[in-house]
């Protein structure tokens, strides 16, 4: 079987189980990183074809879609996505030119900028979200075999006993 004939899950070097050096949580985290990379790679082209935005711009749209209609401050968007504010400013400007977001000044803060989705963006996300969700599911299925999926349980075994506060 050639490399191109192999199942994508077989191409990942991260073991799912065994007597390796890494504890289960670290092994599962490495599997999660590999799976995330596979999803991002697949999503880049699908997002460009369906929404005509970059993957990073798509992440901004998704973040704003889960917020109140008033949106978020630019600093919050940068913090939540772990993006430099200068890069975010460029991406928001691109989304604004495409009619997908609005930028408004924050009342009482002359430097503060609030970003929100437009109705056009909400409609386009609504139209494409099923296809995009299916792309994520398929990329995960293709990148994670049975052993990798089982190993992912190591990230959540006793989550009830872990304090997030």
From TrEMBL:
The organism's place on the tree of life at top rank: Bacteria
Lineage of producing organism: Bacteria, Bacillati, Actinomycetota, Actinomycetes, Kitasatosporales
InterPro entries per UniProt: ArsR-like_HTH, HTH_MarR-typ, MarR/SlyA-like, WH-like_DNA-bd_sf, WH_DNA-bd_sf
GO biological process, one term: response to stress
Organism: Streptomyces yokosukanensis
Domain HTH marR-type: 25-161
GO molecular function, one term: DNA-binding transcription factor activity
Database matches in CDD domains: HTH_ARSR
Name of the molecule in the record: MarR family transcriptional regulator
